[in-house]
Amino acid sequence: MLETRFRITTPRRFLPFAVIPAVATSVTTSVATSVTTAVTTLATAVTAIAFATSTAWAAAPTAYVTSEKAGVGVIDLDQMSLTKTFPVGADGPRGLSLNKDGSRLLVANKNTGDMAVIDTASGQVVQRVKIGKNPEYVRVHNGYAYVTYEPGEEGGPPAASGANAGNGKPGADDDASKPPAEIAIVDMKTWHVIRSVTSGHETEGIEFSRDGKSMLVTNEGDDTISVYQARTGAPVRTVKLAAGGRPRGIRLSPDGKVYIVTLESLSKFVAVDAHTFEVLKTVDTKLGPYGVAFGPNGKRLFVAAARDKTVQVFDGHSYEHIADVPVGQRCWHFSFTPDGTKLLVACGRSDAVYVLDAQNYQPIKQIGELPLAWGIVTYPASDGSIESR
Fold it and tell me: What confidence category does residue 251 fall into, taking pLDDT thresholds of 50, 70 and 90?
């Protein structure tokens, strides 16, 4: 009896030590594995959500339009509708440009004398870079932002379309007595102005050579093009154009051989040899040409003749006139959509963007609520009067 009880009780006495640890180890391993799997799955999901959120700005083709009175309008290009406006205060935003991945929008603000850096995912201003008086034009190139500003200009609302300074004659004003314009070069890694380059009077458009080594700017006030080394800002040469022409827009041809420069007060554009800087051809336009760009395939050249409320179309090689397309008032800048099928024209005095078919030039619609629309760019990047691919 005692032996029997011993045989019965011994397993009970040692069972917790002999059997339970094995079970516990198995359960612990199983639970740990499940927890690890769950944590990994959750981490993956969180990463995916974070990535999707951070790249939401790139999910659909988008156009950004500066409105001097409202901020920066955001247009969904799939829906062709204004979806939101990024507020930048009463800053008078004008020139704008995007960084390479479209995550940052750089905007020149006339009234505050700075460049705002906007997170395109949130619409928030994440950085402000002090530039100087009346910054106007912005171009991004090889990790740097180039911003024109005019120390000699006074602030205030833009002049009405067709208004001339001075005695009313084209190009007649007191530009020569004002300080020349400047171009601030901003390092986009530190958001610091690394140097400022003295230019001509009333610097307008900015373009770069095909190899990226040269920067060209048009100087409306003294009828010149200034050429610089892009990286250092060192002056290379000054190209004199027709007196009283007031050069504004500039764009390099797709083959890199010719610069097209619009002469606002003479209602012409000139084709300038990209190597010798000689004027190869002069072409008549309608009144007040400003923005200029080649179409996506380079076969057509588009010019915004702002004072005649027209976008003109020319052959991209012979410059033969092809078509005139009616648009709104004070249409200075335009951009193609990333797929090249539509043309978006920012018309300041019409407070709207005009949408045109890029093939037959027929109007598609107007996108309003953009008071004093100034410039327009897209992401993904497309050809236009401010940026080009």
Answer: very high
